[in-house]
Amino acid sequence: MPDKSRSFELQEPRSPESLVPDPWLEPWMIAAASVLLLVLLGLWFFHKKKPLPVDPLAIRRAAHAEAAAALEQIGAVSAREAAVRCSLILRKFLSIAAGDPALFETHEETLARHDALQGFSPPARAAAASGFSKLAALKYAPEIPDIAATEVIAGSRELLETLHLGFQA
Is the pLDDT of residue 132 over 80? Predict the structure, then answer.
């Protein structure tokens, strides 16, 4: 009979952690994914905040169309009222199309500014000075001028066309 001697020594049991399978997701993977997510969010946020390119020609066309429509809507009014409305419409056109602060200035302040209407050709600047002077004379005359409102509107329409076509390239 073979001798089978066995030792009855107590052995340490295997650790329970050794029975758990290794995780496929490591802590460095979580950190890398978080950093990547933050970078992507940052790029998306800054890309979204970029202003769209502005087309100055489209802005000028829209301002011209708006001003022309506003001049057409001036009804049967006195020459002074027509001059006031035409002046406001033309100054609003200048403020939108050329970025000029003429809308918020008096006639004298606009003429006194050396950089007024610099984006226009010299004939357009001369026509603007002449046209706005006529409108100012009509607006501030002590007596209501003896001129038809349709003439004031027609002159303003001509000035609008001159200004619209008078932008320097």
Answer: yes
Angstrom distances, CA of residue 33 to CA of 27, 39, 46, 155? 10, 10, 20, 68
Would you report the helix, strand and coil content of the chain in percent, each value rounded to 5? 65, 0, 35
pTM over 0.70, yes/no: no
Going by C-alpha positions, the residue among 101, 132, 127, 103 that lies closest to residue 115 is 101
Identify the sign of the CA torsion 161, 162, 168, 169.
positive
Whether 83 and 138 have beta carbons less than 8 Å apart is answered as yes
Q: Tokens representing 166?
A: 């008078």
Query: Does residue 167 sit in helix, strand or coil?
Result: strand
Cβ–Cβ under 8 Å, residues 102 and 168: no
Secondary structure class of 115 (helix, strand, coil): coil
User: 7-16, 118-127, 155-164 — which one is most confidently predicted on average?
Assistant: 155-164
Q: Which residues pair with 120 in a beta bridge?
A: 167
136: Cβ contacts below 8 Å, ≥ 6 apart: 87, 107
Q: 167: which strand partners?
A: 120
